[in-house]
Amino acid sequence: MLGNFIDRPTLILPIFYHCPKTCSLLLSNLSMALNDVTFTPGKSYRVLAFSFDEEEGPKDSKNAKKNYFNLLKKDFPESEWRFLTGNRKNIFALARAIGFKFKKLASHSFVHPNILLCVAGDRKIIRYLYGPDFLPFDISMAIAEAERGAPGISIKKIVSFCFDYDPKGKRYVFKTFKISGILIISLLAGFIFFLVRKKPSDSTSCHGTYISSAVSLP
After folding, report:
1. HEC assignment per residue over the chain
2. Topology at the third CATH level for domain 2-153
3. For the segment 112-150, what is each residue's pLDDT rounded down to a tens digit?
4. Residue 21 has pLDDT above 90, yes or no
């Protein structure tokens, strides 16, 4: 049973193995990202890749695991990333449970979103990460949230807004110019609002307020 496998934070990647484009990219990008995740596979989290193509079977999943597992570091436990297939009933049951929708166009051809899910040990969906690129920082944050059993939405928004990811240095870089510009504009807007709202009793007090406010800006 799939539920027996989800007893800790689990990453779930819906794909199909015969996909010639996006799914291959999702699998390879996830493999590379997992190498820099700050949590220990098996101890802190597990990974599932499941095919939503009912025409695929164990042979397809075995070949996929052989190809993409080679991209992982050697100490990644083989049992902690499972490549799954299933029948139509099980596929649609899992897809409904995780809110994943797809449309079959032809044999081994689908329209589908590119997502990675992080699920807590109690099977609660914590976060959707959108591909095809997956960043180690985002995955690590999702796993940390899954350990707590609740998403940290505000923290995530602050990080994504204030920082850019540097793939070369594998770190987040503060958006200095963007944040500084926003702060300056906010201060000016607040200052103008203060002047508009102020109703001085005479011209002398008006000039005094203006100078005092201007001096206190820095």
Report:
1. CHHHHCCCCEEEEEECCCCCCHHHHHHHHHHHHHCCCCCCECCCEEEEEEECCCCCCHHHHHHHHHHHHCCCCCCCCHHHEEEECCCHHHHHHHHHHHCCCCEEEECCEEECCCEEEEECCCCCEEEEEECCCCCHHHHHHHHHHHHHCCCCHHHHHHHHHHEEEECCCCEEEECHHHHHHHHHHHHHHHHHHHHHHCCCCCHHHHHHHHHHHHHHCC
2. Glutaredoxin (3.40.30)
3. 999 999 999 999 999 999 989 999 999 999 999 999 988
4. no
